[in-house]
Design brief:
The complex is a heterodimer of chains A (about 230) and B (about 475).
Chain A (H helix, E strand, L loop, with lengths): L1 E13 L4 E13 L3 E5 L6 H8 L7 E6 L2 E2 L5 H11 E4 L11 H12 L3 H14 L15 H14 L4 E5 L7 H18 L2 E5 L3 H6 L2 E6 L2 E7 L2
Chain B lengths: L2 H12 L3 H41 L2 E4 L1 H5 L10 H10 L3 E15 L4 E9 L1 H7 L6 E6 L9 E5 H6 L3 E4 L2 H9 L4 H7 L6 E2 L2 H11 L2 H14 L1 E3 L4 E7 L5 E12 L4 H6 E5 H8 L8 E6 L5 H11 L4 E4 H4 L1 H39 L1 H10 L3 H37 L1 E2 L4 H6 L5 E2 L5 H27 L3 H5 L3
Helix pairs in contact in B: 1-17, 2-15, 2-17, 9-10, 15-17, 15-19, 17-19
Classes of the chains: A alpha/beta (about 230), B alpha+beta (about 475).
Bound molecules: adenosine-5'-triphosphate and magnesium ion (MG).
Chain lengths: ~230, ~475
């Protein structure tokens, strides 16, 4: 079952001097439960592609259909709600609200979704345990290491059981040990909860963990391989 | 989403940059204290003036023969006395009324003279209407009583003009100065003038000037001056006036009491005697008088009461305190304008500080706000989050300011604030030199609403700034 269907996606930035075609005719289908890495040199259009899939940026042309919803039919306000209810996000940094504890950060999306208090409490605890932070529920971001913060971010992204999780270079700011650890956790959750992951990376070790690798160059898919 | 969540984030955000928040909060605090306190002083000041106007000077309503107002002649007494008296007695809204014979006289002693309005009153009725009987100064004897005839209560000002107010350093004065901790060396110098009587304030002041050093005068002059006041009670004053037939008549009264209200002009003019001591002499039958002063139960009923009496007794003139002391009535209106101006300035300054602080906060949190919008926080929630933070920032200071302001008013409302360095000017126009600040609870309610309103309004600019953020750009890490 495909979660995301992308057809002939193009994104052109009209800079003051030059026109940049960041994504240049991408066709792509993501299946439920896939663990996909998007790789490519700097400037190849990874972030641009992920932002469009995540409903943060609009394509110049082409379509993105997520679970039968064509994102281009949604207006800005609808897109916000769409993101809230369907997509989990993990960014490279600044993922967490500094004044909230790990627990509160993870609950945040479920709170916004209006979930039941008991359900939130239970799910928050469960998911934080899954990322190995069961003992840091009440720590604030500045009391956690960079790796731990990213694990909280992953927990938050997954807490509300979204259709898929987008992670743009989630390990870029981490050392190799934390990187490996985060990827292990993501992989484990991908298997355990059958969560669909799409992440971009520069890191070969991260690429090695992926079961599908898509290589972008100049906004085009030049390679798309499934492993294992 | 549960509102508490957003509210809790907003509250925590207030304290993210403690130093900056505290600076704004302090500014708001000081502004609110200033606003509340100055308003309290203003209110106390005006209220005292109005109380004084009503309860010593003009009462709530005054009823006259209309001709008396044009020309204060003896003949113009209140007509239809039994009718109006019956009415006043039966009206539920009326607390008390006092009938007064008013005679313009020339008062003279062996050493001075002055034009005085003699108010012939009935003691118990007058006490229920006017508080002059409570304004007897210390060492100034007592109010009128029915025990002896031909007594008079005059003001401190009149006593001064008629040279009944003297200055004398007696052994009691020295004792009291010792108690006031005036240094022995200074008191020693005063023993030179012990028991010498100075007939005027000027003479005594000059004597003190030559006797004491400049420094002593500055520090203790006022205490010595006040302690040395000596009223020659039981002094005789002769009053001369024309009776109803135009014949010149005389009457001697003995001073039994000296009063002082906060209105020098009123004091200078008015003296009080028992009606029966003066009315026959002026040629009046038992029950003639020129004026009825009325006090109502409720100040707010005055206008209604006035028009009621007017329709019932069209031949009478009825004036309310607002007619008689328009300046004091105007002060009430002015109070509203004063509040508005003071609050306007404070809230405006407050809004500036708040907007500036919040804009800085937004600027610092661009990435975080971008992230929140990216993960699905809608504009309404972002707006609310910033609005709550702004309101909290405003309220903390304003609340503290109101509490401190209220305490200040409570405290000074008890002790009073002495403005006597400028008091002579104030008292000359009828305002007390010692102000007891006061404020009504409604004011705090209003201020709270205004502050919250300002907080909400001030949040619009920073919130709009936040909403304009493009999440994609905000979260892009370079
Ligand atoms: N807002 C923008 N305006 C103009 N050009 C842009 C904008 N955003 C991205 N680009 C351009 O689009 C191209 C693709 O950028 P993108 O950020 O998607 O690359 P990337 O693969 O994520 O690179 P990196 O690995 O460095 O993160 C680049 O040439 C970039 O300069
Ligand atoms: Mg990128």
């Amino acid at each position: 079952m495909s979660v995301i269907e992308i057809k002939n996606l193009v994104k052109i930035y009209n800079g003051s001097a030059v026109q940049v075609t960041a994504v240049n005719g991408v066709d792509l289908t993501i299946e439920k439960g896939e663990f996909t890495a998007i790789v490519g040199p700097s400037g190849s259009g990874k972030t641009t592609l992920l932002n469009m899939i995540g409903g943060l940026d609009s394509p110049t042309s082409g379509t993105i259909v997520v679970d039968k919803t064509d994102l281009s039919t949604l207006n800005k306000r609808q897109l916000v709600d769409y993101r809230l209810n369907n997509i989990g996000f993990v960014f490279q940094a600044y993922n967490l609200i500094p004044v909230l504890t790990a627990k509160e950060n993870v609950s945040f999306i479920m709170e916004m979704q209006g979930a039941k208090k008991d359900a939130i409490t239970q799910r928050t605890k469960e998911i934080l345990e899954s990322v190995g932070l069961g003992d840091r529920l009440n720590s604030r971001p500045n009391q956690l290491s960079g790796g731990q913060q990213q694990r909280v971010a992953v927990a938050r992204a997954l807490a509300s059981k979204p259709k898929f999780v987008i992670a743009d270079e989630p390990t870029a700011n981490l050392d190799s040990k934390s990187t490996e650890n985060l990827l292990d956790i993501m992989e484990e959750l991908n298997k355990k909860e059958n969560t669909t992951f799409i992440f971009s990376t520069h890191d070969q070790r991260v690429v090695n963990k992926a079961r599908r690798v898509i290589v972008l160059e100049d906004g085009k898919i030049v390679k798309d391989e499934r492993r294992g | 989403m549960r509102k508490q969540m957003i509210i809790s984030i907003s509250w925590k955000n207030v304290w993210r940059n403690k130093k900056r928040s505290l600076i704004v909060i302090c500014a708001v605090l000081l502004g609110t204290i200033a606003g509340v306190f100055t308003s309290g002083i203003m209110k106390g000041w005006v209220q005292q003036r109005i109380d004084s106007v009503i309860y010593t000077e003009v009462s709530h309503l005054k009823i006259h023969n209309p001709d008396y107002l044009l020309n204060e002649e003896l003949a113009y007494t209140v007509p239809d006395q039994s009718g109006i008296e019956k009415y006043l007695k039966s009206d539920q809204n009326i607390l008390a009324f006092s009938k007064r014979v008013k005679i313009m006289t020339m008062a003279s002693t062996s050493t001075g003279s002055s034009a005085i309005m003699l108010n012939g009153i009935q003691i118990e009725d007058e006490k229920a209407v006017s508080k002059v009987w409570k304004k007897i100064v210390s060492g100034g004897g007592e109010y009128l009583n029915n025990l002896s005839k031909n007594q008079i209560v005059i003001s401190d000002k009149t006593a001064e003009q008629l040279r009944i107010k003297n200055f004398k350093v007696t052994s009691e004065v020295i004792d009291s100065l010792k108690r006031l901790e005036v240094p022995a060396s200074t008191i020693e110098k005063l023993s030179n003038i012990e028991n010498i009587r100075y007939k005027t304030a000027k003479l005594f002041k000059n004597e003190l000037k030559t006797l004491l050093s400049k420094k002593e005068n500055k520090e203790y002059g006022k205490q010595i001056f006040n302690a040395s006041v000596h009223y020659r009670l039981r002094s005789k004053i002769v009053f001369t006036f024309n009776d109803t037939n135009g014949k010149l008549v005389y009457q001697t009264f003995r001073v039994c009491g000296i009063y002082k209200t906060q209105n020098t002009m009123f004091d200078q003019m008015n003296a009080f005697v028992v009606k029966d001591d003066i009315a026959p002499l002026a040629g009046f039958s038992d029950n003639s008088y020129h004026e009825i002063a009325v006090i109502a139960h409720e100040e707010k009923d005055i206008d209604e009461l006035k028009s009621e009496i007017k329709t019932q007794f069209p031949e009478l003139s009825v004036l309310s305190w607002k007619d008689l002391a328009p300046d004091a009535a105007m002060m009430t209106d002015f109070m509203g304008i004063w509040y508005a101006i003071i609050m306007g300035i404070i809230l405006f300054a407050l809004a500036f500080g708040i907007i500036n602080t919040m804009l800085m906060a937004i600027l610092e949190r661009v990435k975080e706000l971008g992230m929140l919008m990216a993960i699905g926080m809608n504009k309404k929630r972002v707006f609310r989050m910033i609005m709550y933070e702004t309101v909290f920032l405003t309220l903390v200071g304003a609340f503290g300011g109101m509490v401190i302001g209220a305490l200040l008013i409570g405290f000074t409302g008890h002790t009073g604030l002495d403005f006597s360095s400028v008091s002579e000017g104030l008292e000359a126009i009828g305002y007390s030199a010692i102000i007891f600040p006061e404020i009504d609870p409604g004011f705090f309610f209003l201020v709270t609403l205004l502050v919250i309103g300002t907080g909400i309004l001030s949040s619009i600019i920073p919130a709009r700034k936040a909403l304009k953020l493009n999440p994609v750009e905000a979260i892009r890490t370079e």
